[in-house]
Amino acid sequence: MLHLILFSVFGLVCVAGAVNLLLQRHPINSALSLVVVMGALAVEYLLLGAEFVAAVQVIVYAGAIMVLFVFVIMLLNAGEEEHTHGSRVAWLLGLPGMLAVTVLICWGLIQDQTSSVRIGELPGHPADIAQLLFHQFLLPFEVTSILVLIAIMGAVVLAARPESVRETKREH
Amino acid sequence: MSITLFIIVSFIKIALILFVLLTAVAYTVWLERKVVGRMQNRWGPTRVGPFGLLQPAANGVKFLFKEDLTPPHVYKPLYIAAPMIAVIFAVTSIAVIPFGNSVTIAGYDIPLQITDVNIGLLVVLGITSLGVYGVALSGWSSNSKYSLLGGLRASAQMVSYEIALGLSLVGVLILAGTFSLRGIVDAQAGHFWGFIPNWFIFRGGQIVAFFIYLTAAYAETNRIPFDLPEAETELVAGYHTEYSAMKFAMFFMAEYANMITVACIASLLFLGGWRGPVFGPDWLQAILPVFWFSLRVFVFLFVYIWVRGTLPRFRYDQLMAFGWKFLLPLAIANLVVTALIVAVT
After folding, report:
1. Residue B196 and which of A9, A47, A57, B306 are 20 to 30 A apart at CA?
2. What mean pLDDT comes out for the span B7-32?
3. Between chains, do B126 and A63 touch, taking CB under 8 Å as contact?
4. B329 min Cα distance to partner chain A (Å)
């Protein structure tokens, strides 16, 4: 019972953080709302029993990626955004679309009771996850790591100064 | 144990550990002033109480009664929240750290730890990695050039050294096979060759990992020689330039609490935690492990101060080059070697 209450409370915190992320005008407030969303999600994972995933969620997303976001906002000294009202198409198509997707997801969840997990019963022990990652899903795991490596190399190439790019071209 | 009793015991443990931690923080400041003073051939605090021992109390009173000045140009919500974030995350990480085995009081077996989770080490890493927000946000919200530069330096430095720090711990995790801090200490029981204690620092090249961890941890806690975020010769006081009174003291508390956490983790992971000779009557057997653990933590804190009295500050590009080009490859190499040793034996 306590688990259910906590689960609902942190679910609400998560949604509130997400709404606040959109409503805030200053980028740093939005970034911090996203940190709150990440933290609340980690608590949800923890309540479900996936301790390892919860810890990794905090370390990777809240502790590393969002710090970089905040760092960039600080470095660029980004000011307040100007909000526009948005186009009429977005209102006309967006709202019904959102409703339709919500109904679809709810219907799917109600129909398919077999794949849902009871609170605290998700197999989240680090050893289980290691078994899955390094035995059953080894190939996708390695492919993903190569993908990330390519992305990093791409970022380095894009961030390289134009002079150095020109120099390498002349060498060829 | 019933749920009410469990809650009461937990509250007592939390209050006790918080009290010990905050006292330790206050007296680490005293110790630092005293030891650095002696290293520089002066006395350090001597006026308040014998050996200046009441100096921390005097400092506390002074911080409480000083005028809490909020500069007019700051972004107020984050300016107020930043020191709280720093100190809350610094103090919270102590929750999963075990200080000894369990004691039996009135028939109940009480472990000397607030809570034992089987991802203990990850919890500590996660919470300390959130501590950077306190520093970064204080730098930004102060709306001053010195603070902003200090905050930027701190966040870049902490994110960079976190990688080497995390990788240096993986070797220990491979040897122990668990994330639980209690489990890691249990894995270091016994001796090999009859007399050398079975600590991880002596096994499978972990002595390299130990020094990587110590170096990276000095950078994580923004201590000399890596205290670029508050380099007073160039940035006045870095990220806490605009803070006064208790808010300033909170950053100080966070820094020293983080030092103590680092010392605890180093003792638990590399030096066998609370292991040591246990003898005598029952009450002594219960106390001695806590004493051995505190002794290790004290030695680490002393080394912290010793390093502060010895080494000059790095230049910023040296700091970044050292972290990325030396410490990180070394940590990866150590991880590969450890994995090979474990696979072969």
Report:
1. B306
2. 88
3. yes
4. 16
**CA separation for the pair B67, B303 (Å, rounded):** 35
Residue B174 touches partner A, C-beta closer than 8 Å: no
Tokens of B256: 């020293």
Tokens of B47: 């006026």
Which one of A80-89, A112-121, B198-207, B209-218 scores highest in mean pLDDT? B209-218
- B252-304 pLDDT, tens per residue? 888 899 989 989 998 888 888 787 777 777 777 778 888 888 898 999 999 98
pLDDT band at residue A146 under the 50/70/90 scheme:
very high
Any idea where the domains of chain B sit in the sequence? Answer: 3-344
Whose structure tokens read 């309540």?
A47
SS3 A163: helix
Confidence of residue A116 (pLDDT cuts 50, 70, 90): low
Query: pTM here?
Result: 0.83
Strand, coil or helix: what is B104? strand
Please judge whether B122 and A74 are an interchain contact, meaning their C-beta atoms are less than 8 angstroms apart. Answer: no
Out of A55, A74, A126, the one facing B126 most closely (by C-beta) is A55
* Inter-chain CB proximity B129 and A75 less than 8 Å: no
- Tell me which H or E stretch contains A61: none
**Contact (Cβ atoms closer than 8 angstroms) between residue B127 and residue B89:** yes
Task: Tell me if residue B107 falls in helix, strand or coil.
Answer: coil
Give the Cα separation of A71 and B153 in Å (integer): 10
pLDDT, mean of residues B12-36: 89
Residues of B in contact with A74 (CB under 8 A): 136, 139-140, 148, 151-152, 155
Long-range contacts at B97-101 (CB < 8 A, ≥ 24 apart): B97/B124, B97/B181, B97/B261, B97/B264, B97/B265, B97/B268, B98/B181, B98/B182, B98/B185, B98/B268, B98/B273, B98/B274, B99/B274, B99/B289, B99/B290, B99/B293, B99/B294, B100/B274, B100/B286, B100/B289, B100/B290, B100/B293, B101/B274, B101/B289
Whether B148 and chain A come into contact, CB under 8 Å, resolves to yes
Set of chain B residues whose Cβ sits within 8 Å of the Cβ of A55: 119, 122-123, 125-126
Q: How confident is the model at residue A83 (pLDDT cuts 50, 70, 90)?
A: low
Mean of per-residue pLDDT scores for chain A: 81
Nearest CA to B81 out of A75, A32, A65 is that of A32
